[in-house]
Amino acid sequence: MRWLTKAVLGKTVSKTLGIGVVAAVAGAVVVACGSSQDPTAVFDNPRDAGIDVYGGPSGDFGEGGKFADVIDIDAYYYNDPPAQWCGPAGGATPPPAPGGTAECPDDKNREGCPCTVEGQTASCWPGPRVNRNLGVCRDGQTSCIKTGELTTAWGPCSGAVLPTSGATKGAAACKCFSAGKWDIPNVIPCFYDITSNNVTTKYAHSTTGNGVCTDEKKPTTPFSTDTLTVDCEGTFDLCMVIKAGDLKNPKPTDCAMMDPVCTGATDYPKKNVTKAFPDLKAWEASTPAQKACADTFRAGGGYAELSVLGKSYTCDTIDDGSGQRYVFQRFPYCPLKCSDPAHKADAECVGCANGASGSF
To answer: N or C: fewer beta carbons within 10 Å in the chain?
Structure first.
């Protein structure tokens, strides 16, 4: 690490000029909690899917492995009402209610339901509406096929990606806020020691928005700008906190060297579109516990933890399942030595950057 030591009014000042984070090959991060689930489960037809995804029994599907052997498919479709609406007043408008019948809603193009033009292709969805086009979930394709001399119906729904069986978080669960990116250009902390009359006072605070380490006072300018891109519309409060500890084994007891910096509840009106969120404010390690945690971080390293609390426009609560913040991403910091140009080529310093940008 690079130290600047100088005499200032009888004080010895030592300043650590920020540390990088492990950068991704454009954006470095450890993936979101829960995203290690297998996102590749693809089913051609709900009859072939692992039916515990839908709330039915799991395990043996019965002779022939058919979905219909263990669940009433008609009841499954009937019990999938359109989503509720919790969008902002005077803002986005709710999607139109599906037409057709409970057995053959026109928004799903269910296999066996009537269609009008033989050979016509269309998107189809054999899963619950609440999961559609969220996370890894994707529509399939179906074709209008001839079923009798004068009748046509939608054929099998091929290529649809449904929620991974057993997944509760991350992209594999196909819930609101299960895939996206929170981009924070500056995540670098600053450490500052002042020794006067043989007494050393330690400081830790945010760098300025361009990653510059100021004096012992926290900056008056914001810590960082930030943008969000996510797979659903809603109102979200995003927070970042820096902790001392092992990213590979994060613990609830890991200390935080600052109060979380948050965007506050902010409207996100259009899914999969990058939107600027409120700046993250400057911070400092102000309490004895936070200052002690900053020392622990300097000695042994740590990580940043990103979390969200919110509600989607379709009334899904975004939390950890118990009303608390949902941690959707963590990323590691490089060793302190990586701020020294002499160590830029070291294996653990290659790819370090000032910001954090990666998909969760």
So the answer is: N
